[in-house]
Design goal:
Shape: globular
Number of strands: 0
Distance between the termini: 26 Å
Strand content: under 5%
Helix content: over 70%
Number of helices: 6
Radius of gyration: 14 Å
Structural class: mainly alpha
């Protein structure tokens, strides 16, 4: 499933729910998906470790076991969408941790280039008109 399809699925599911849609969530999902896919193209084993590191760091900030399980399912690819109530600060924390870990595993130059590509690709999506990917930093 490509990023645009995943974002569309996330948006449809959010519209179907009765809760207020956080416009940052689909942008966060898009940036993280592109970034992690690019890292995975470099080294699948290292990216698997990175995904586990993200889960262990970010899950501490989530309020329920169900949300941690949903994050795990999304990070491991067993769920197509990220359907959790996560605030902007937690999204920023997750993205920062992912970037920092990518710097450690792949080097800062590679991490910078790949994150910049992920943000640029996300900025071309319609969801970026509602919430700028730049606000995730």
């Amino acid at each position: 499933m490509n990023v645009s399809e995943q974002v569309t699925l996330t948006n449809q599911n959010e519209m179907d729910s009765s809760s207020t849609v956080n416009p940052a969530l689909p942008v966060f999902v898009a940036v993280m998906t592109v970034f992690l896919n690019q890292l995975e193209a470099l080294d699948q084993k290292v990216t698997k470790k990175l995904r586990q590191s993200i889960l262990s760091q970010v899950s501490l900030r989530l309020s329920s076991l169900a949300e941690r399980q949903k994050l795990n399912a999304w990070l491991t690819g067993s769920a197509d969408k990220l359907d959790i109530n996560i605030g902007l600060v937690d999204m920023q924390h997750c993205l920062h941790h992912t970037y920092h870990s990518a710097c450690v595993y792949f080097g800062p130059t590679e991490a910078d280039e790949l994150l910049a590509k992920a943000v640029s690709e996300t900025e071309t999506l319609p969801i970026a008109t509602e919430f700028s990917p730049q606000k995730l930093f």
